[in-house]
Every structure is written in structure tokens, then in C-alpha cells.
Write a structure and sequence with these properties.
Order of helices and strands: EHEEHEHEEEEEHHH
CATH architecture: 3-Layer(aba) Sandwich
Strand order of the largest sheet: 3-2-1-4-5-7-6
Largest sheet: 7 strands, mixed
Number of strands: 9
CATH class: Alpha Beta
CATH topology: Rossmann fold
Distance between the termini: 15 Å
Radius of gyration: 17 Å
CATH superfamily: Vaccinia Virus protein VP39
Number of domains: 1
Amino acid sequence: MRLLDLYCGGGGASMGYARAGFDVTGVDIAKQPRYPFRFIQGDALEYVAAHGHEYDAIVASPPCQGYSVTKSLYRADHRYLIPATRAALQATGAPYVIENVEGARPEMIAPVMLCGASFGLKVYRHRLFECSFFMLAPTHLRHRERVLNRRWVADWGGFVTVTGGFNCSKAVASKAMGIDWMTKAELAQSIPPAFTEFIGRQLRQRIEQRLGVA
């Protein structure tokens, strides 16, 4: 099954969907030299309008800076693309998933929140997922453990915060997120593959049920 990942970034979400069994193509306006699958540089909404019908499922992570609690740190104009992205995905008729940060909740329709702790990851990273299909979600575990916030620690077995700042080393961030091919800046923006592998398995099941695949 072919899956299109819009605003794909470095490919954290893409990796999870690939592990769930999809043939993934990523689209992003910026170059992604470390993206691990087929990549097309271009405008996501223009591409899905022209080629969305070629895919069995479409996922999208519109820019989150405008919805983030740190949006005041960004000087660029914020783009609020969730409504436009949803309309473009619905026009294809394919099942879809839209991902964003917690601050985007008012823009999203019945989103499911996933947390790294629910997947055994050492990062309390919350992300919202709006799905065009019914999706089960794991229990959100309480945040009981202390979180490291010191870059100079080279190895750490506990929880960390993964941002582009000096909160932890790249090696620690990579281990916590389950991603070993990205830069620290890319990790800061990424979705843990464990999240989307979990979603992707349910998405495949829905598609197979619709197609009558045993």
C-alpha cells in the first residue's frame, strides 16, 4: 500500500508508517538530505491536489510553529495550514491522519493524544493525531520520572526533553526518540516512529477491511 507523507521533515513519522508495512513517499518544501525514503521537494498542498489520488493513504504534519507555546521565539510569519490541509486530504477520498502539537487542539477534529511514555520511550513528547477513521489509543501514563535538562551528560537512562537547545546531547536525544539518522535540529521537530507505527497498523487494518482483504 502506498502512503503519502506531507510536510515530512526528516522522516520520523515516515519511518513508523514504513514499519507498519506502507511504501512511503515524502513531500516537503525544504530539502531533506537524510530522509530515508522516496522524497519529492515541493509544496505539499499542490502535490496532494495533483497526485493524492495515486496513494492509498495520506498523512500530514502541517507546520506547528504557530500553534506552539514557543511561537513568540519565531520571527517568521506563522502559517496555520491545518484547515487547508484537511480540505485537501478530504478531496482525495483517501483515509488520512493529521498530526500537530497540543496547542493546535482547537483546529483539530477529535484528535487522539499520544505520549512517548506510553510506548516505552524516554521522552514525554505529546502529539495530537486527527484520523479519518476510528483509532484506539494507549493509556496516557502519568509523568512520574525526573527529566534531564543538561547537555553535557553524554549518556542517560532516564527521561529527556528533546528540543534544538542545550537540554541534552544528540546521542541521548536519538536514543530517547528511537531515531538514529537525524541531526539534533531535526530531532527537535520530529515524531517518534513508535507513534506512527502504532497508528499505521490500525490504518492498514482499516484499508484492508474496506478492500475486503483477508
